[in-house]
Amino acid sequence: MRSDRRAFLLSVPLSVSAASRLLARTPPPAPYGVLPSERQIRWSELEFYNFLHFTVNTFTDKEWGDGNESPAVFNPTAFDAAEIIEVLKAAGSRGVILTAKHHDGFCLWPTKTTDHSIRNSPYKNGKGDIVREIAEAAGRHGLKFGVYCSPWDRNQATYGTPQYLPIYREQLRELLTGYGPVFEVWHDGANGGRGFYGGANETRTIDKQHYYDWPNTWKMERELQPDAAIFSDVGPDIRWVGNEKGIAGETCWATYTPRSASGGPAAPGDVDEKEAPTGTRSGRLWMPAECDVSIRPGWFWHESENGKVKTPRELLDLYYESAGRGASFLLNVPPDRRGLISETDAASLRAFGQALRSTFGSNLAGGARVSASNVRGNDRAYGPHNLLDGDRATYWATDDSITTPTVTFDLEHPATFNLVRLREHIALGQRVAGFAVQVWRDNRWSDFGKGTSVGSGRIVRSQTLVTTARVRLLITDSPVSPALSEFGLFYERL
Ligand code: FUL
Ligand code: CA
Q1: What is the 187 CA–ligand 1 centroid distance (Å)?
Q2: I need a labelling partner for 151 at 20 to 30 A (CA). Which of 5, 17, 22, 274 fits?
């Protein structure tokens, strides 16, 4: 049997990890709880990407446009998609989500659904298409492209009536069919209220549960872009973290059972946001959190906020509090009136990216000898060396009855670090509920740090630097045997 398998392996090109999975003699652990889809697993690996908030508001100095802005105000003088994307790439970003339409209803692409668009702006004499320019520049530089198309539309005369929904869906259809692959579709929860509405200038409220017929709107998006992760307060793929500070709960489960503020079924714009930072242990749905926050106080560029740009230190702290807690970090960077990222913002982003690369570029535990208190079926396919191969698909697992194992790393040389990063093999569910990291110093083990949820990535940070040649990881709380894919030690360099 084994030699047959070897012969098979020789005949087909396979990655080393795929080969080691094939060679496993022991069945893998049974999955625990609800599981991520392939699409959600891929999304979890992005960890950091950006928003671009850009529209008429950039020129009118507003955060929420009323919907009566003349398209003539949209006139960036030096818009350069390649330059914007280059800055984001330098920041370490893996994707960009553009406000193709914000609440004011102005469309940054030449939509057929309304005249309230770039076609009636001076930009490129009405021949421009900001969505296309950003999508193409992102593609050329290897960043993924996503869209924000606000359901609330303060320009549309039909907003609030059943006639608006086909218009909104058609806008989504244009965006999801005309611009190549989309990695994320972003639905904000702000809905209804005062607006221009084709001149009515009134307040319109909608039934948040039913007005947008979300199940069918999401179904259409799925059909058009099956790989796109769909975001809203209640997913279906990714949940809002419940605040606009960019901060996940210290404990942050990828599983979630959303409820409305009154305890009933939740909908976009009607969710109990207090529960969103933490999620729900063993919740009903796999719906990891996304942490959105702006590099400035507002989402759009305002001259008055030029002195309030977050520093590289602040960005790195937010990265730890989002991506370092199993969520994703969605950082907004608003282009200015030229259509470029302002110098202060760009400098901060570049320094942040440099810090990410030099901190996480190499795992100081990389060449360690590693031994575990238990290995599933004593089978090398589940050995703890899988924690150090940089591959999320390979993992260390224990026998079913072993839920609090330990793994020890003997480093080649003493290393100095202040960060430990863990990853679970989330394809088997979110299993671990508690862990501790200890370091060997002065002939005894002392605590480095501990945590609860792990999920796709958890960073534990110590206030002081530690130098040691021996580190151990203790799983302290898990309802089932753990399955961990990566372990890393890093020295923050900012
Ligand atoms: C919210 C909007 O109201 C803000 O203007 C911004 O776009 C933020 C990201 O989402 O729902
Ligand atoms: Ca691995």
Answers
A1: 9
A2: 274
Parallel, antiparallel or unpaired: strands 95-101 and 48-52? parallel
The number of the ligand nearest the C-alpha atom of 386 reads: 2
Cα R_g (the chain), whole angstroms: 24
Strands 458-477 and 406-424: antiparallel
Q: Which two structure tokens, joined as six digits, stand for 493?
A: 């360099």
| Cα-based distances in Å from 401 to 29, 96, 298, 361 | 11, 44, 51, 36
d(C-alpha 103, C-alpha 65), whole Å: 7
Give which of 81, 494, 458, 54 is closest to 315, Cα–Cα.
494
Please state the rounded mean pLDDT for residues 426-438: 98
Ligand 1: residues within 6 Å at CB?
63, 188-190, 292, 299
Domains of the chain, CATH where assigned: 2-30+363-490 (2.60.120.260), 38-360 (3.20.20.80)
**394 alpha carbon to ligand 2 midpoint, in Å?**
4
Q: Which pLDDT score, from 0 to 100, does residue 337 have?
A: 98
Q: What are the helix (H) ranges across 106-200?
A: 130-140, 164-178
Residue 24 C-alpha to ligand 2 middle, in angstroms? 15
The SS3 of residue 315 is: helix
75 pLDDT more than 70? yes
Could you identify the atom of ligand 1 that is nearest to the CA of residue 294?
9
pLDDT band at residue 12 under the 50/70/90 scheme: very low
Among all bound ligands, the one having the nearest atom to the CA of 394 is 2
Q: What is the pLDDT of residue 31?
A: 98
Residue-wise pLDDT tens digits, 202-223: 999 999 899 999 999 999 999 9
Closest listed ligand to the CA of 383: 2
